[in-house]
User: Fold this.
Amino acid sequence: MARGKSVRLFLVDGTPGGLITAEIMNWTGHVIAVPRSELATLLQRREVDKTGIYVLLGDDPDSPGSTLAYIGEGGSVYERLRAHARSDNSRLGDFWDRAVVLVSKDTNLTKAHARYLESRFFALATEAGRARLLNGKAPRLAPLPEADRSDMEYFIDQARIVLPVLGVNLLRLTKPASVTDQDDVAAGAASPMFILASKKTGVDATAQEVDGEFVVREGSLVRSVWSADDRHSYEKLRFQLEQDGTLRPLPEGTGMEFTRDQAFASPSAAAACVLGRPANGRSEWKVADSRMTYGQWQESLLDAVVTDE
Assistant:
């Protein structure tokens, strides 16, 4: 069973849209997230004038609903952010509207550490595929002693816990949960595999709940076109997946397939993109090797709950 984590968030100005700091007990990392409109407030904080890494985030104009990101490092994050905020910085001056800074509470984070973190963040963000990265090329992985690499990997593990809490899913991977222990599945600790298949339309898709998201697996086969006559928000989502290469046509127009794992906000959104029409994912998705629907599976978890008298 996974152990819980306590993430401490502090709203510096008392509003959820302002500057936020985040920490984990017994972790030396210190995370600060701020909208660009509050950048001047961020730059007044002493901890920003430290060695660390940062992420700039903004909407992708070429893919509505998607994210653009830039990952950087600096001996002084303060200086780097000031440079990126200048209007004459033609490559990065305008796209971003939010910044996230990661530094250490102590002074043990060196330039080499920051370069290592930058390279690893870039690699993980590329693997996750949740944002289009504006870095010109992959940062080189800085050589570190074995003990330092271990410390930095721990830093990364903690950052991957904190960032999604702040709404930053850049490093959030969609690895499948283990379903080898059926007791864990029954207790909701792991999700079973779900299937959605139709011989008539060539649909043959698999999915699983991972970390609170509904993830359709790479290689899943979906309907070749959106078939519904009425306009629907899910049609836009389906079109976006086709445009960004998540869905690609199969030979001779026989359908389309997912080129990578894709996380959806709900099973209905996933079912609609697979079937090419609005759909109720709670009834369309079935537990593999079972007639149980996704909705029935969720209800079975509630039935299994035993409350103390």
